[in-house]
Thioredoxin (Thioalbus denitrificans), 286 residues
Amino acid sequence: MNTIPSIVDATLDHFNDLLEISREVPVVVDFWAEWCGPCKSLMPILTKLAEEYQGKFILAKANIDAEQELAMQFGVRSVPTVILFRHGKPVDQFMGAQPESEVRRFIDPHLSRPADARIQAARESLERHDVASALEQARAALAEDEAYVPAQLVLIEALLTAGEVVEAGARIDQLPVDMLADPAVERLRALRLFAEAAADAPEQAALEQAVAADEGDLEARYRLAARLVQAGDYEPALEHYLAILRRNRNYGDDAARKAMVAVFDLLGGSGGLVTRYRAKMAQALY
C-alpha cells in the first residue's frame, strides 16, 4: 500500500482500481470544478489531511467537467461533493465546504484499526467454515477494540454460525439504534431467525427423513428449511417455506412468510431467485 500515492486523480477508466484500493484503506473522492469557489477552500484541507495521514486514506480528485460520466454515476449534483469509499462501495458523503475539524470527523471512523487484521481473519475462517477459529479471532478483535462496530458484527455472525443464539441475540439487541437499518445488521437479524429455528434441532438428514415420512410435519419442515439456509441451500429452503405457507398460513405466527422475507434479505433483495419466489409467495398468500 505504501507504493500508492496519497493523492491521485479519479477517472472513470481507472475507478475500479480505486474501488480495489478501498478494500485496504478508505478512498475519499472529492468531486470539484475549477469554477467552484467552495471547492478551492475545501481542497487544501483535504490535501493537508492526505499528506498528514501518510497513506491511511487516499484522496482522489475528480474534476466533474472532465469526468462528467463519473459524476453522473454517483449522483453528484453540486460541488464540492465528497464521497468516501470503503470495501468497494460508497459508505459516507458530504456536500459543501467544511472546516478541517468536520472533515477529520468524517474520515477518522473509516480508518483502519489494529483490530482489522483479526476481523479479516475471522471472516476468512467463516468462509472456510472454521467456526472455532472465527470465534477466537472475533473475540480477540473485540477485546482489542470494544467500541468497534465491525468487531461486534463479526463476533455476532460467528456466534450465530456456532449456534450461540442467546449471546448473539443479546449482542444484536445492544447495537446502537442508528445501526438497526444498516444492511449488515439486517443480515445478522435474518441469520438470527434461522439460527433460532435450527437451535437444538435434529441434524439435516434426520429432518429430511421426518418430512419424507410425514409431509404435514410442519415443525420438521420449518427446521429443515432453517438448516438449509444455514448451509446456503436457499432454493430448497424456500420451497419448504412455501409448502408451509400453502398448508397453514398461520403456522408459528406467520413464521414461513417471515422466513422467506429473511431469505430475500440475505440474498440482497434482488436477483432471479428472489423475484421468482416473491411471486410464488404472493400467489400462496393471495
The longest helix spans residues 37-53. The mean pLDDT is 93. The chain has 14 helices and five strands. The chain has three domains: 7-110, 116-194, 204-285.
